[in-house]
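Hi support team,

I submitted a single chain yesterday and got back a structure, but I'm not sure I'm reading the token output correctly. Could someone confirm the output below corresponds to the sequence I sent? I've pasted both exactly as they appear in my results page.

Thanks,
R.
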Amino acid sequence: MRSIKILAASAVASLCFFVATPPQSLAQVTVGIGVAPECPYGYYATPPYTCAPYGYYGPEWFSSGVFIGAGPWFHGPEHFSGSVDYNYHPDHGYHGAYPARGEKPREGWNGHAENFHGTAHHDGHGHDVK
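Hi R., thanks for writing in. Yes, this is the structure output for that exact sequence:
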């Protein structure tokens, strides 16, 4: 009889242990950014990554007329930095036209902004560089 009581107590203790243990989570979080937006003159380096207007980025951000990237999609040299003109940024008061994603650059665009005057210097990830 004593062995049955010990066996029953062990079974109850085991049952309590398994019930009290939370289920194991095997979740894996993956964040996919996707492809860079197709914008004729580049895109802002911060979400929602809207297309930046002509004149926001300086010519050093383009290679043969193609934007080399900013933010998560940056694909330029490791220690790259380039000029931007904050006058064309919505957080600094710009309310003009923005090109649409997939829109083609204006005719004659070759990646060199004529008479560009930057107001800040950024690295490829959108951080200010002194």
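A quick pointer for reading it: Residues 60 and 82 are 6 Å apart (CA to CA). Let us know if anything else looks off.

Best,
Support desk
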